[in-house]
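Structure, all two chains, one model.
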Amino acid sequence: MTVAVQTDAEGYLANKDDWSEELANELAKELGIELSDDHWKVLNAARAIESESGASPGLRKVSKRSETPIKAIYKLFPDGPAKLIAKIAGIPKPKSCL
Amino acid sequence: MKTVLILGAGTAGTAMAHKLRRKLSSEWEIAVVDPSTTHLYQPGLLFLPFGDETEARIVRDRGSTLGKGITWHQTEVKAIDTERRLVDVAEGEPLSYDFLIIASGTVIRPDMIEGMLDGGWRKSVFDFYTLEGAKALQEALANFEGGRLVVNVVEMPIKCPVAPLEFTFLADWYLTKRGIRDKTELVYATPLDAAFTKPLASKMLGYLLEDKGVQVETEFMTGEVDAEKNVIRSYDEREVPYDLLVSIPPHTGTSFLEDSDLGDELGFVPTDQHTLAVRGTDRVFCIGDATDLPSSKAGSVAHFQVDLLSENLLRVIDGKELEPTFDGHSNCFVETGHGKAMLIDFNYDTEPLPGHFPIPHIGPLPLLKEARRNHWAKLAFKWVYWNGLLPARPIPISPTMSLAGKQLTAAAEAGGA
């Protein structure tokens, strides 16, 4: 099934307000991930930090906030956790100033 | 006597002290707390490893950068008590304040990466974000005869986010001049998904990496430095071998912030994006690299924050409300090597765009484009730093970003936001 929601050219949510837990489940499925409670701990931490600070967090910060070791985050979100977390959590891509 | 207490006398703290000294009457004491006796011109650290800058030219006596009318407590901060409005210091009585400005910057933390401080530290593993690191690297580069030179950003956020790329470009130039570029593999390893992460920059500047023969290793989250095998290893078990590793270690806020329950997971201070007030406190503000803001940790940002926060403080002193004036404005030169540089100008909402600066359509400095005059302007900036920015004399650049003279359509064409 294809999720009917606007994303940018790289697959990040175009409009933050479109995000919902149901949508996250669908987005995760499309990326080959079935979301468990452990996934949600990480996603909720990333969303909370982004909403407080306005910046998509690096993995070290997400790891501390969610009390999930970085190694475990790699198991939960293989193939580029930083990108996958941002896509599923509906927050902007982690980026630099250029 | 009322007091504005500033923690840290780096770029942000020193400029803020001078700015407030100029704006507030003698009823106000302006005091800074900083244990270090010297002030370092940090942009110089980029050039020092290549022998294009010297310690003597980038370090000044702290006393000379503060001057009359500013009280300097030369001691370390231990903790902040925002309830009682007291700052506990290593030597002397606790300091009280009417307004507190945290400007304590960031700390480079090689200790956070397994193996980084083991056998190879400052032998084959270097940083250039500290004076000692940049000096040691200068010697290592002078003795470098070719092999794999790896530049690795361990994790964002870092100070001066473009400096690692600038270092890579300058290394290409340096190695070319020394005649050993063809004996060197130049590698840039980043935790992000590209060296240039914004669509327009990626489209317009991708050629730099290609032309200079820089190999890019993306989404590389360094877990470990293996100093015996001379490899860095990522959390997903990829290995990047090096002969010379130039690491940009993780950055955190200063430890007293954590001890005062004011730091986030990395010790950065939760700061309002537009007023610079520290969230959840009263009469406490944060500027410069110590904030958790999504703006760049850069001198220009500190400068713009000083301008805007000083105006806001005057409003508060007059009994008015804070205004959300800071827009994340940043303005940075980017050295690209061979005597050229770019200039980028952006804020929270607008990515770096092509155009001209500071006068729309005229310049003289072109934006997001390599030019010799940008390189000369970057070198000339050192004079502006010591004589304009630090003593908070007027510099004719707006603290908020202007879209005038910028090519807005370029971003849309590149598919960016």
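The CA atoms of residues 79 and 414 of chain B lie 47 Å apart.
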